[in-house]
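Operator note (shift B, R.M.): manual run for O-fucosyltransferase family protein requested after the automated queue skipped it. Running by hand, logging everything below so the morning shift can see what happened. Input copied straight from the record, untouched. If output looks odd, do not overwrite the archive copy; leave it for review.
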Amino acid sequence: MIMELGYQNHYHPYRSILVTLFLVPFFFNYFTHASSSSMYPEWNPIKPRHSRLLRSALHRETPTSQLSELWSPLENQGWKPCVESRKPTLPEKSEGYIQVFLDGGLNQQRMGICDAVAVAKILNATLVIPYLELNPVWKDSSSFMDIFDVDHFIDVLKDDISIVKELPEEYSWSTREYYSIAIRETRIKAAPVHATAHWYLENVLPVLQSYGLAAISPFSHRLSFDNVPVEIQHLRSKVNFEALIFVPHIRTLGDALISRLRYPQGSAEEIGSNYLQEVTDAGDSKKPVKFVVLHLRFDKDMAAHSACDFGGGKAEKLALAKYRQVIWQGRLLNSQFTDEELRSQGRCPMTPEEIGLLLAALGFDNSTRLYLASHKVYGGEARISTLRQLFPLMEDKKSLTLPLERSPIKGKASLLAAVDYYVGMHSDIFISASPGNMHNAMVGHRTYLNLKTIRPNMQLMGQLFLNKAIEWREFQQAVIEGHQNRQGQLRLRKPKQSIYTYPAPDCMCQA
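Run finished. Output pasted below as returned.
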């Protein structure tokens, strides 16, 4: 915010004013770090909003039988993955090259990649490895090859479609910059959201046949989930669950985190600098420990966009309102409702304190190994401290690794998210504090593999937290009853729902 203030000043002919303006950011920075946390209400200490429940939760005792049931894996639900119903075949002749430009975060890009493969198959085209746009929120410029194992991707799909890492020399002019400065005949800009396969055959195939190339931008949610041939649905599933694996160094770091969670041996500093090399030997003589991955989706964008009250007082309300005005010009449907209305409808993201109370009510005790998967938490440690009180064995990437081990992913939001995704897929239980792309992707992937995944009942939790007089026993009973069928039980996809969140029956068969 300060840097923005510093760089929004316009040129002025007088040198003294220029010097003053040049120094403003530095003075602001100095005084901010020196004292004035009030300028940043998210840095201020946050008092617990549910003190009555928190006191009870801190003294909770969970019966052994409840813990055993909580940690037990899902029973066989009668479904299994089936993406290879018939032998895939490559078309005899490619109609041309398909380029796609994907925006959004890691999981939105992941869905776009799956759809791009499907579109290439529909058109009998050759797919160019998708281009990932610069992430506008996290400023991450990571490419496909920085995140995903491209050789594995091509090899798994080699019998389904042709894939090239880059365009041949004759098409080298077809770049992101080329399409950003003028209207081009090879760019498909008007692909509707959830377009049908027929739409692509009618509108994109002629461009391919005329120019040998079609570049689709934007390309996010541009293929329907309904009325799509079975083989195309299977192919999308094959991409998502088999072809897309992370690059080796992401998997290595993820394996190190998983091993340290399963076989606790102290801090990263106590282990030493060779931990990544020694990780495979860590569990030879120890019994593995179960752990939960919690995706704490509580960043500033999320908090501001929800228009809910998070207990930071008038200063926080004003700061979030100003942020909404700057980012979205105040155009938010939620801002028309009161906090109580939003909470009773389940439209407020849970704070770290609230998700901690949910986990405690479900039966997780203070010996639970909890891995925190999150990029930036709005309010930082001030917000997380209550969750840490409830779960003192909480870990994250920073607590489990040395700086040198994290250096390849430092400051790269997509790679950080990839590590969290990998660890989340190997956890005993996964839970997300609020719905979103990460939540949806993990729910789908873990459903595909029949792994336990807790889906918070947002409406129930919102209503429970509105009741300031509720006692722990009543709260706990309501939470347990409200989540009995939200722990990984398979749900069949309904029309318009995503196959990436609900893989059955499109990607799975009855066993």
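Quick read of the result: The chain has three domains: 2-35, 51-72+248-298+349-434+453-487, 97-243. The first strand starts at residue 79 and ends at 81.
Leaving this for review. - R.M.
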